[in-house]
Amino acid sequence: MIYTGVTGWGDHDILYTKGVASRDKLKEYAAHFPAVEVDSSFYAVQPERNMRKWTEETPEGFRFIVKAYQGMTGHERGEIPFESKEEMFHAFHLSLTPMIEAGKLAMVLFQFPPWFDCTRENVTYLRYCKEKMGTVPLAVEFRNQSWYQAKFFDKTIAFLEQENWIHTVCDEPQAGEGSVPIVLQATHKEKTLVRLHGRNRAGWRKNGNKNWREVRYLYQYNENELRQWVDFSGHLHQQSKEVYVLFNNNSGGDAAKNAKQFLQLAGIEYENLASRQLDLF
């Protein structure tokens, strides 16, 4: 199955009835797509009550891709509220309990920063992450080209296969060592993750822009580009039972629109989504 969705559910206005409260948006989101990425878990380990609420207000077949907490991937901003890495990993793992019990956790995404390059130390850390997360399915997203350089490519793919990591296939601008190429290679027989960040090459780097985080995802895929990803996703689906395609190009509000177009071009229709809410007028 090819699951389609977007990153986060709060900012996709075209999906929601007018005036819907933030607390109710996930319910309406689940009427459009069968999967979503949880981004809030990157900024703080979520209390179990949040995870349980989100689990309970989505249909049985709904799936969550939960982003690993920033302290687990080397993105630390400010003080980390844990005394040790062991405590941090334990708290994060515990927060996943409601989704695991309900069978709705597709995977946890470890998105590493551009400075996480292909070194022995970082390979060892990937093994550490797997050890601490136990049987939870883990996806890895690299943002440093060294993992895919010719001298490391085969070893990277073989390592991910051996360690049972889910490969994250990215579409993003090719703007130096802090971006990665499209690598249509599954490393997990059950699951593959695709994240579409857009192709705004000019905005991908900081370049002194205070709003760079918003600018870098400012991109709308055209029909030809979406058709290309329909083909790419089909290719990955031949290698992996489930492919999760997530659109992250939402600085201009384009992610949900492009995700809808992708489904139409792919001829995908989902059953057992949540009931669609209708505007009064």
Task: Walk me through what this model shows.
The chain is built from 11 helices and 8 strands. Helices cover 33% and strands 16% of the residues. It has an 8-stranded parallel barrel. It is globular, with a radius of gyration of 18 Å. It starts with a strand and ends in a 15-residue tail after the last helix. The chain has one domain (2-266): Protein of unknown function UPF0759 (TIM Barrel, Alpha-Beta Barrel), CATH 3.20.20.410. With 281 residues, it is of the alpha/beta class. Helix 7 (153-162) links the parallel strand 5 (138-141) and strand 6. The model has no long low-confidence stretch (mean pLDDT 93).
Topology:
Blueprint: E1 2-7, H1 25-29, E2 35-38, H2 40-43, H3 48-56, E3 63-67, H4 85-95, H5 97-102, E4 105-111, H6 120-133, E5 138-141, H7 153-162, E6 166-171, E7 191-196, H8 201-204, H9 212-215, H10 223-237, E8 242-247, H11 255-266
Parallel strand pairs: 1-2, 1-8, 2-3, 3-4, 4-5, 5-6, 6-7, 7-8
Helix pairs in contact: 10-11
State the order of secondary-structure elements, H for helix, E for strand: EHEHHEHHEHEHEEHHHEH
Sequence stretches where pLDDT stays below 50 over 5 or more residues: none
Q: How many structural units, i.e. domains? A: 1
CATH overall fold name: TIM Barrel
Compute the CA-based radius of gyration.
Answer: 18 Å
Number of helices: 11
Question: How would a textbook summarize the main sheet?
Answer: 8 strands, parallel, barrel
End-to-end distance, in Å? 35 Å
Mean pLDDT: 93
**Helical content band:** 25-40%
DSSP strand content? 15-25%
CATH superfamily: Protein of unknown function UPF0759
Sheet/helix structural class: alpha/beta
Give the spatial strand order of the biggest sheet. Answer: 1-2-3-4-5-6-7-8
DSSP, total strands: 8
User: What is the overall shape?
Assistant: globular
CATH class equals Alpha Beta
- Annotated CATH architecture: Alpha-Beta Barrel
